Structure to design on (1107 residues):
């Protein structure tokens, strides 16, 4: 991607390593000046426009489409329908591995959910295609839609999330609950939520024989390549995908979606390049969402406020035709030291698109329920909720008994509480008022997210001029991969950032895995680090075996790569410049590859998680019930922080997502038709600036020698967890009302004045 | 591509002539109309762009002390006109609590009066809606209706009018100046919007082809300036429509309420003037008992149209609060969070 000119970092003063420096985003200027080219910004010569026609019913089949009317419309080139479409090499309903989800690719006239594509109109202009789609005037045979968590009979799923057991039992929860001195039982509900990335899913696809060139946002280039290859029966290497920038993904761009494939099919059908961009309302269905949950927690305590049992049961939903079960109850596995823990799931099938990974899948809804229940348990014990959490601190992972690879959660609690001023919190609710008379409440939530790693490759090159090149098909969703991974690359090569060219964001580069699971920096970063180590090792071999080199014979003591030179480890007065080594060897460049991946041996011994503590203050109008978060402090321990500025932004973003979860976000579905009623950004509320208070993030020092050699745990999702619960708990502390249905709305806090 | 006529007349007379054709609609900033067209909710055959009509973008002080606001004055320009904001603080506060800064920069005074309901069934072309398609039925009645009307609704329609601006206009006896083929006429804003009855497709009393050219606030309206507030409850701190809102304007002399104006937003198909409450307040001491009495009077005829009984309680509470704030006195400056309960007490720092 030599056409991407990132900001040079030469003005930045380094102090030793690139890692750890708070660099600003190197793609920032491109973005704020409009030069960053997103998928839909591409215009290929001869390109046509494709527009989806989508179903207005949630269940049934299409009985009629006025294809002739659409075709007659000026500018319309073709209409792709179940009976007129390119042949696929693979059934879109096939599932050959757990990360493969069924796609709606016009395979038949069935309607599985509202907003499902039922035809694609291809035209010379966007306007013609749009009108052509409207002229299709579909008719349907409609069946009653299954809507809401009670919309169908429930069943026990075979697994939840990605292969997690749906039910886990540790100890005897029922007898522990029976024997408990105190217990609570409460049910919490979370709504369906949609990712709503700022950038809609878009694709520009161009075929040349059996090779395919694509611009589309992707959090997982190699997986997208493999999926497309399977569907069209061509080798993955025939597919070139460019995804240099994503305008947000949050999981909805992790797997290539049906509409993106329809864009490729449309290009195949008409034999010309095609652009297809989803309208905002079309993003509510075919690109994943977070399923609603109803979670019941039963928690038992002994007379000293020690947990004796946690039973966490979650009811959630998947689509009628595929399996993704939000693993909400799994949130109770790792946080609190209860001798008996049981988690279980039941699910219903609804007439919606298939729910998928959405920022902190499972952890986010599970966390708000668990943290609320823990707060309710603390109150029943008459204990401060932070003291209660400390009393039940898990020194080893509760169910597995494994030690943690590192866990600075105590420090997070302590430093966060100190910064927030938690010690002044009255135990009882409805005690605090500000000078204007608003109810004030303080709440805490514990944050946690597993330290995952997937698999990634990278290639590193040192050139004869002493500069470096690092390649890994990494994905920047806005989190800062262009910057943080380049920092790791520079350190891996022992070069200054300005001397390293970093290439990412296209499918012809080494596979960087997926930007998901908060694992991208760790996984791609380790591949990059290892590639750098491998290439400098090669360079060292060259030097140490060449008697003309000052490093000749240093093989036993070894060398250190730093600032573009190799130094003898035992005597740094002996060193040699990279350029000199390569020039003398007559090499234009030297290259090596590296891999990143989890270490199964370490994983079998240690439990690996990031942790945090979030403290929230809310103000509530005592009469009118309107809520505003007035400040939040989050203290997080997530291993080594590659770029403190970007990590802080990620954690801020997660905490804001927590505000959204607790107070704003909710997809409203008509209970009869199954259509979304607020599929737009005016009515699907996320926080606006005025809802986001003073946020404060502390990253707590944590050295983890086991997660990976760089000690990275990831910060992408953990900010959501803990935050939503902290706000819900603060609302209770302010008002004395425990709202167990989220988001908390004005009406929930308006009770008759006589109460 | 779907076609419609687009004309851009240069005089009011030409505009009215152009809009006489069946299916014509006036286009100003288009902040609502264009969304409705894109969503297939309305499909005008002809758009008559009035944005170039001369003389409609002025704010004029009238000899009787009133103010005449041209229909094309932008919401933001009006709210930020310091003489206007000082004279009609509740109107300015209402304007600044609506939509977003970008929308306020574009949206016009006339367009604000003409905006359609935000009922999601009205916007969802696949749902039954008597307002969009007379006689089709109302899917909101048995549907998601938590935010729908509690006053003045009918079996045919339970939608609410979304305007903030119109609420204090109704309270302050503002008048709409209308031009039509048969000349001009005037109508109080209070009688401009219609309750649904059995013809919810008609939002207002405007006849086809008639054009709003100005809104006039009478001179008397500025006599409330010392005690005038607009308060708006919403489900996020900014950029949200009102769950309920209230404009309260008082004249207090020697500890007695000499005159009172009260109107509610978000409760009915029109901005709701609460005359019974006003009558209850006049002559009373400005105290909690009077406000409660007024609130009960204002909502005496309310009934839930669905799962929205909480709005009746909430409307009473917001009336009490708005009256309390109005009696306390108009703040010297419009708060940083206009109309938000979180701006209701002086001197609270907010992170905006």
């Amino acid at each position: 991607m030599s056409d991407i000119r990132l900001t040079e970092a030469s003005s930045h003063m380094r102090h030793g390593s690139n890692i750890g420096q708070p660099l600003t985003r190197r793609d920032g200027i491109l973005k704020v000046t409009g030069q960053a080219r997103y998928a839909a910004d591409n215009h290929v010569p001869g390109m046509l426009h494709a527009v989806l026609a989508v179903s207005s019913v949630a269940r049934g089949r299409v009985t009629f489409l006025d294809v002739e009317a659409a075709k007659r419309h000026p500018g319309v080139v073709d209409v792709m329908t179940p009976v007129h479409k390119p042949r696929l090499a693979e059934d879109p309903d096939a599932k050959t591995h757990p990360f493969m989800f069924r796609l709606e690719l016009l395979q038949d006239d069935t309607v599985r959910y509202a907003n499902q594509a039922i035809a694609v109109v291809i035209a010379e202009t966007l306007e013609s295609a749009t009108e052509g789609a409207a002229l299709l005037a579909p008719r349907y045979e409609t069946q009653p839609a299954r809507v809401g968590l009670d919309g169908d009979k429930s069943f026990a799923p075979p697994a939840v999330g990605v292969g997690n057991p749906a039910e886990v039992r540790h100890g005897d929860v029922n007898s522990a609950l029976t024997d408990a001195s105190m217990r609570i039982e409460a049910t919490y509900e979370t709504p369906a939520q949609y990712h709503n990335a700022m950038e809609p899913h878009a694709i520009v696809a161009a075929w040349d024989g059996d090779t395919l060139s694509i611009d589309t946002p992707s959090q997982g280039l190699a997986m997208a390549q493999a999926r497309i290859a399977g569907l069209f029966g061509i080798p993955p290497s025939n597919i070139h995908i460019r995804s240099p920038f994503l305008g947000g993904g949050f999981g909805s761009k992790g797997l290539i979606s049906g509409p993106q494939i329809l864009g490729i099919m449309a290009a195949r059908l008409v034999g010309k390049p095609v652009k297809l961009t989803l309208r905002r309302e079309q993003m509510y269905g075919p690109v994943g969402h977070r399923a609603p949950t109803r979670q019941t927690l039963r928690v038992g305590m002994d007379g000293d406020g020690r947990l004796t049992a946690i039973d966490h049961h979650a009811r959630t939903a998947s689509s009628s035709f595929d399996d993704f079960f939000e693993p909400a109850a799994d949130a109770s596995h790792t946080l609190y030291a209860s001798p008996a823990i049981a988690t279980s799931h039941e699910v219903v099938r609804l007439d919606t698109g298939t729910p998928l990974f959405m920022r902190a899948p499972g952890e986010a809804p599970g966390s708000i329920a668990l943290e609320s229940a823990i707060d309710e348990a603390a109150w029943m014990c008459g204990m401060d909720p932070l003291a209660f959490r400390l009393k039940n601190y898990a020194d080893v992972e509760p169910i597995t008994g494994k030690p943690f690879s590192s866990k600075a959660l105590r420090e997070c609690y302590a430093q966060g509480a100190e910064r927030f001023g938690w010690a002044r919190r009255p135990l009882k609710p409805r005690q605090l008022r500000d000078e204007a008379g608003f109810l004030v409440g303080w709440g805490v939530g514990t944050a946690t997210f597993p330290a995952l790693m997937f698999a990634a490759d990278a290639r590193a090159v040192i050139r004869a001029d002493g500069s470096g090149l690092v390649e890994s098909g990494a994905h920047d969703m806005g989190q800062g991969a262009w910057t943080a991974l380049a920092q790791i690359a520079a350190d891996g090569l022992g070069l200054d950032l300005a001397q390293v060219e970093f290439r990412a964001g296209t499918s012809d580069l080494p596979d960087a895995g997926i930007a998901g699971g908060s694992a991208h920096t760790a996984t791609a970063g380790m591949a990059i680090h290892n590639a750098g180590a491998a290439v400098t090792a090669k360079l060292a071999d060259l030097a140490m075996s060449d008697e003309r080199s000052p490093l000749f014979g240093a093989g036993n003591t070894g060398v250190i790569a730093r600032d573009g030179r190799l130094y003898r480890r035992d005597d740094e007065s002996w060193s040699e410049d990279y350029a000199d080594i390569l020039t003398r060897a007559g090499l234009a460049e030297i290259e090596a590859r590296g891999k990143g991946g989890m270490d199964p041996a370490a994983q079998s011994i240690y439990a690996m998680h990031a942790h945090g503590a979030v403290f929230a203050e809310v103000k509530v109008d005592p009469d009118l019930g309107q809520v505003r978060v007035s400040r939040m402090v989050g203290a997080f321990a997530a291993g080594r922080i590659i770029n403190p500025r970007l990590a802080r932004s990620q954690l801020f973003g997660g905490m804001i997502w927590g505000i959204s979860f607790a107070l704003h976000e909710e997809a409203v579905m008509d209970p009869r038709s199954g259509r979304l009623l607020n599929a737009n950004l005016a009515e699907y509320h996320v926080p606006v600036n005025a809802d986001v208070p003073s946020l404060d993030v502390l990253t707590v020092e944590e050295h983890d020698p086991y997660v990976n050699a760089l000690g990275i745990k990831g910060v992408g999702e953990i900010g959501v967890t803990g935050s939503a619960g902290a706000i819900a708990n603060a609302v209770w502390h302010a008002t004395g009302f425990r709202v167990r249905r989220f988001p908390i709305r004005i009406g929930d806090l308006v009770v008759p004045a006589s109460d | 591509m779907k076609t419609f006529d687009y004309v851009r007349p240069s005089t009011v007379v030409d505009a009215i002539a152009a809009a006489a054709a069946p299916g014509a609609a006036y286009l100003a900033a288009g902040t609502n109309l264009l969304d409705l067209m894109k969503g297939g909710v309305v499909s005008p055959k002809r758009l008559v762009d009035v944005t170039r009509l001369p003389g409609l973008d002025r704010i004029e002080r009238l000899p009787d002390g009133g103010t005449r606001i041209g229909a094309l004055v932008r919401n933001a320009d009006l709210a930020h006109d310091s003489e206007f904001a000082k004279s009609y603080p509740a109107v300015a506060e209402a304007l600044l609590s609506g939509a977003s800064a970008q929308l306020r920069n574009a949206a016009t005074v006339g367009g604000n009066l003409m905006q359609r309901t935000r009922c999601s069934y009205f916007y969802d072309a696949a749902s039954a809606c008597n307002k969009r398609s007379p006689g089709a039925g109302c899917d909101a009645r048995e549907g998601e209706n938590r935010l729908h009307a509690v006053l003045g609704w009918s079996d045919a329609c339970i939608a609410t009018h979304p305007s903030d601006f119109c609420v204090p206009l109704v309270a302050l006896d503002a008048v709409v100046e209308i031009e039509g083929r048969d000349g001009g006429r005037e109508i109080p804003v209070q009688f401009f919007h219609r309750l649904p009855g059995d013809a919810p497709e008609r939002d207002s009393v405007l006849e086809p082809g008639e054009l709003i050219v100005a809104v006039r606030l009478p001179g008397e309206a500025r006599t409330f300036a010392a005690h005038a507030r607009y308060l708006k409850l919403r489900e996020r701190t900014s950029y949200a429509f009102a769950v309920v809102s209230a404009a309260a304007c008082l004249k207090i002399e020697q500890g007695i309420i000499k005159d009172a104006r009260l109107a509610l937003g978000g409760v009915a198909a029109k901005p709701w003037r609460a005359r019974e409450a006003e009558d209850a307040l006049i002559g009373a001491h400005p105290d909690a008992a009077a406000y409660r009495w007024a609130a009960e009077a204002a909502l005496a005829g309310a009934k839930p149209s669905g799962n929205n009984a909480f709005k009746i309680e909430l409307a009473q509470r917001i009336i009490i609060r708005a009256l309390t704030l109005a009696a306390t006195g108009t703040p010297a400056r419009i708060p940083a969070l206009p109309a938000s309960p979180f701006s209701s007490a002086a001197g609270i720092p907010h992170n905006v």
In short: The mean pLDDT of chain A is 96. Chain A touches chain B through 50 residues (CB under 8 Å).
